[in-house]
Write a structure and sequence with these properties.
single chain; 276 residues; alpha/beta; D-Maltodextrin-Binding Protein, domain 2; Alpha-Beta Plaits; 6-stranded mixed sheet; 5-stranded mixed sheet; 27% helix; elongated
């Protein structure tokens, strides 16, 4: 299998890709849209993209917007969850009290801001496209450090100055796998949906959610994004335990289609189970 992902080597997304398929041919790309475009062009079978983080919430607005785009042909066909442990790294011999810049992906910078203020009080945050790219750049820039994972530090020959510097414990990121082929039903699945409601009708969202509850279908995630068409109108993203081929899911999707303005199944796929 050919798996496109946000690169360069050593990113958390690469770790997710390996976790999804250890035998895969990895195709690092400079951005999330570039990874997805690799699949659209037929150069990769799937793309692995960050979806949500246990601390910061939505990890990639780009991915959500693409999934609900008109005629977007890819669907979610898998998921994996990566434990996030941020390291403060840089070139050898640095004095952290004099460091002026710290590079990383914006999410990592947010997740480490309090600890970073203590460890490197003069360092100003600087955004990078990926944690691995941040490390690769910081080791070649005097007075700079980066936040990334241990594997990327080893890959780029960086010194680890502090381990697990996240402000909160239990940091995890969920990644989804996007491809053209649907995932087969396993009996322990998850379905991702997106829909819009009649925003000017009281109780329209509750009505839709109640359809799932009455059938005992457990929702594991719900969030909203603006429709980008009119102020105060939203697209709701929902994850539900079950597969579109399950009888209860068939019923609820048919019923919900009658009261929503727009509804799309983003994919059904095997539910992630920790291998710990």
């Amino acid at each position: 299998m050919r798996v496109a992902h946000l690169g360069p080597r050593g990113t958390y997304t690469e770790q997710a890709a390996v976790q999804f398929d250890a035998a895969a041919e990895l195709l690092p790309r400079a951005s999330v849209p570039a990874a997805i475009e690799t699949v659209l062009a037929g150069e990769a079978d799937v793309a692995v993209c960050a979806m949500e983080n246990s601390i910061e919430g939505t990890a990639s607005i780009e991915t959500l917007d693409l999934l609900i785009g008109a005629d977007f042909p890819l669907r979610i066909c898998g998921e994996t969850v990566v434990q996030i442990q941020h390291m403060l790294v840089g070139a050898p011999g640095l004095d952290l009290t004099t460091v002026e810049r710290v590079y990383s992906h914006p999410s990592a910078l947010l997740q480490c801001r309090r600890t970073l203020a203590r460890l490197a009080p003069r360092a100003q945050p600087a955004a990078a496209l990926s944690t691995a790219g941040a490390i690769e750049g910081a080791i070649n820039e005097p007075g700079s450090v980066a936040i990334g994972n241990e594997r990327s530090a080893l890959l780029y020959g960086a010194t680890i100055y502090a381990r697990d510097i996240g402000d909160e414990s239990g940091n995890e990121t969920r990644f989804v796998v996007l491809g053209r082929s649907a995932a087969a039903r396993t009996g322990d699945d998850k379905t991702s949906l997106a829909f819009t409601t009649q925003h000017d009708r009281p109780g329209s969202l509750v009505e839709v959610l109640g359809m799932f509850a009455r059938r005992g279908l457990n929702m594991t995630r719900i969030e909203s994004r603006p429709t980008r068409q009119r102020l105060g109108t939203y697209v709701f993203f929902v994850d539900v335990q079950g597969h579109t081929e399950d009888p209860a899911m068939v019923e609820v999707l048919a019923e919900a289609a009658g009261v929503t303005d727009w509804l799309r199944v983003l994919g059904s796929y095997p539910r992630w189970k920790s291998r710990d």
